[in-house]
From TrEMBL:
Source organism: Gossypium darwinii (Darwin's cotton)
Ranges for domain F-box: 15-61
Gene3D superfamilies in UniProt: 1.20.1280.50, Kelch-type beta propeller (2.120.10.80)
Parts forming coiled coils: none
Protein name listed in UniProt: F-box domain-containing protein
PANTHER family xref list: BNACNNG10540D PROTEIN, F-BOX DOMAIN-CONTAINING PROTEIN
InterPro entries for the chain: F-box-assoc_dom_typ1, F-box-like_dom_sf, F-box_dom, Gal_Oxase/kelch_b-propeller, Kelch-typ_b-propeller, SCF_F-box_component
């Protein structure tokens, strides 16, 4: 009956109906639109433009159907495009993410870190970093503290009022920690931790309770750096026995710290386990990687654990290797392990240099 009454009517919606629609119902309808369509609505009227960028709309629907979340692949031969794996739909995107909006000074860049919808690049030609929101196409250049500037273990950290950039820098016979605060747009310099630079892990810090946590080279231990006062502290906790390598990962939403480590002897891992930091500061075993998957992972990294790195993404702990184009991940809530296959657009001849990042698009995060 309704279909018959609408059959001869114009395709245009009746303004009288839409004007009487409750705002919360209109927002709900808009939340089911594809992202591309939703962004195109910004140019139709001022109300839609302000709505799409409003914090309440973003926080209300970004975790539902509004945005997907992605694994983003960086490789020296990717140039200005990054392959994307849609973790919500479980498929590779056909179109890579373009960077045409970046300034001319970004002709040469290295992708270093990601957090809360933001990415941090280094721009060697302009002696600066570039923090940008790829979805909102906004960016901010940040000059190096001095030049020449050699740094390690750069970590981009989200804060309630913006973000911070942490890094370690070797200068002359000493090393220092530098922290950039987007709230005041300036760098602060602190004493570094010499042991962290010993093996050059290229591993980011794990953000936990206002500090960054790092695993030291063998004999393995955990140290933390307070981002506010710049003080280092050794974590007084007993480490598991027979460790061959250690990586730390944090779930900032739930305030949990995890440790991924190999178990074996003489530097050869025979198994890999996952631990969670307990209330008493001790490590509680959560899960063990199945034997066949462990054999594959150890064979692709050739027991060269310096190439292994980890990161957190939407309930998953991802374990990757610079020499292998696949991701091994653990669904923490289900305690199950899985592989994400190689991107079909990656040539077989590509070898070392694979670097994966968590990409959770967020229109409201400001660079």
């Amino acid at each position: 009956m309704i279909a018959k009454s609408l059959k001869g009517r114009s395709a245009a919606m009746d303004p009288g109906i839409w004007s009487k629609l409750p705002p919360e119902l209109l927002e709900l309808i808009l939340s089911f639109l594809p992202l591309k369509t939703l962004l195109n609505l910004r140019s139709t009227c001022k109300h839609f433009k302000s709505l799409v960028f409003s914090p309440s709309f973003i926080s209300k629907y970004s975790s539902a159907s509004l945005f997907s979340s992605f694994f983003l692949l960086s490789h020296p031969q990717c140039y200005s495009n990054f392959p994307l794996y849609d973790t919500t739909r479980g498929a590779w995107r056909k179109l890579a993410l373009p960077l045409s909006f970046l300034p001319p000074s970004a002709a040469q860049f290295n992708l270093l870190s990601s957090c809360n919808g933001l990415f941090c690049f280094s721009l060697p030609n302009s002696s600066s970093f570039l923090v940008c929101n790829l979805l909102a196409k906004s960016s901010r250049p940040i000059q190096f503290p001095f030049f020449p500037f050699a740094f390690e273990m750069l970590t981009l950290v989200s804060t309630p009022h913006g973000y911070k950039i942490f890094l370690l820098c070797s200068k002359f016979s000493s090393n220092y920690a530098f922290v950039y605060d987007s709230k005041v747009h300036s760098w602060r310099q602190f004493d570094g931790f010499q042991l962290l630079l010993a093996d050059n892990f290229h591993q980011e810090g794990a953000s936990f309770n206002g500090s960054l946590y790092f695993a030291t080279p063998e004999p393995f231990s955990v140290v933390c750096f307070d981002l506010e006062n710049g003080k280092w502290e050794n974590l007084d906790t007993e480490m598991p026995r027979e460790l061959t390598f250690v990586r730390l990962v944090s779930n900032t939403d739930e305030g949990k710290l995890y440790m991924v480590g190999g178990i074996g002897r003489n530097g050869i891992s025979r198994s890999m386990k996952l631990w969670e930091m307990g209330d008493g500061g001790n490590w509680v075993e959560v899960e063990r990687l199945p034997e066949l998957m462990c054999r594959k992972f150890m064979s692709v990294c050739y027991h060269n654990y310096e190439h292994v790195y980890c990161f957190w993404h939407q309930g998953m702990i991802c374990v990757c290797c610079h020499t292998w184009p696949e991701i091994l991940y653990c669904k923490v809530s289900r305690r199950t392990w899985h592989w994400i296959p190689k991107c079909p657009s990656i040539p077989d001849k590509w070898s070392c240099g694979f670097r994966w990042f968590s990409f959770v698009p967020d229109l409201y995060t400001l660079a």
